[in-house]
Specification:
Helix content is 62%, strand content 0%. The chain is mainly alpha-helical and 448 residues long. The C terminus is likely disordered.
Length: 448
Amino acid sequence: MKTALLPLGRWEKCGLWMLAVLIIAFGFVTEMRSAFLTRRMGDVGCFFRAGWAAREGINVFDVMCDNTWHFNYPPFFAIVMAPLGDPAQGFDRAGYLPFSVSVAIFYLLNVLSLLLGVHWCAVAFETLYFPTQPRFCRRWVWLRLYSIVVCLYPIGQTLGRGQVNHFVFAALAGTMVLAVRNRRFWAGQCLALAACIKVIPVYLVVYPLWKRDGRTFLGVVAGFVALLWLIPYVYFGHDLFVRQYETFFVEFLGPSLQLKTDHQMTRGSEILQAGSTESVSLKEALHNWLHVGNHPAPREYHAAAKLGHAVLGCLMTLATLLPLLWSNDVKRNLYGFAVMMHLMTILSPVSHVHYLVFCIPLVMGNFALYWQHRDDLNLGWTNVSMNTAFCTIAALSGVPYMIFVKNYCLPLLPMLALWAMGVWRLYRMKEISVETAAVPPRHFQRAA
């Protein structure tokens, strides 16, 4: 019996309603923590303050939120945050939304971006793996729901802290579904949008370059021109535009790429130096592992950690891309992009636990690979063991009495295991050409 294609059962529907109630309840908790405590918790104040600066014609990188944090994102995102702007103390609030209302709107947009990103990601895999699958059957729901459950802790961290990962994830999921539909120019623009919200997705530009995909790369370039230059230039004017990018490079981008080494820069103590944040990146892990028993580790990254991060980053990227070089297999290419997103999280110079949201496509791809020749929803022992380790260690990093989990970047270990399994599967996939790939369902086909 094809249990995967049956409608949802009563208990499954109850579980979905419970998840919806959990999201609403967590929204109230986030609202209280972010807007009504003596000290505003979370990162939304940083984005709202930059939005206010953008509206007032102030350099968005010079202002700080009430927690004395700077804005470290491209100027385009400050323009996006302008409607939710939060004036600094002592400035007129006329024409601005109450901070609590802005927090509620941001939370709602965060949830919608997550759901939209998960759905688009699932549509991309379903188009290739389950082309005749009916909507809202058990497999349709559980492909989405299992991926959310596995990454529930980083999702909660993103929502609770008021971070932008879900916006970036939705843009990258848009890249995946548009690429599957052969709208590669627009897929490139979605990739550019993700990199213009948060810098680290620029790493993924290597994918269309490696695949010699000119249309996608042209879309990336067009997106960068529009979002990094044209819109900010028109919005801010020439002088402020130049000052902001100069500050962005000198204070953040240059030091993060080792092009500037002045650690007296304000961003050094906030985000760029070792131990300045609760990062679980490969670079941070190598540094901390070189100083086992010496906590906190020195704030200056060990030379071996820098070298190891660069060398391992190049080797891991090459190992991931090699099976994709001459591949015309649409399934392999889609799964390879999911592995690259996962690797982006590992190799980012700063990678907090909430960045693990970007692992959703690989988790979902593993389920799709296992279910493509099955009629049930058995998860398989490999998926169960890998995902259990992944979500358990990620959650343990937030337990106060297990601070060593975060100090020694232990969430990185199951991430590396998932990446290795993904690369192994890339090499073992049988080649399926575009011509012999499964035909997409009717609602994915263009009109004749």
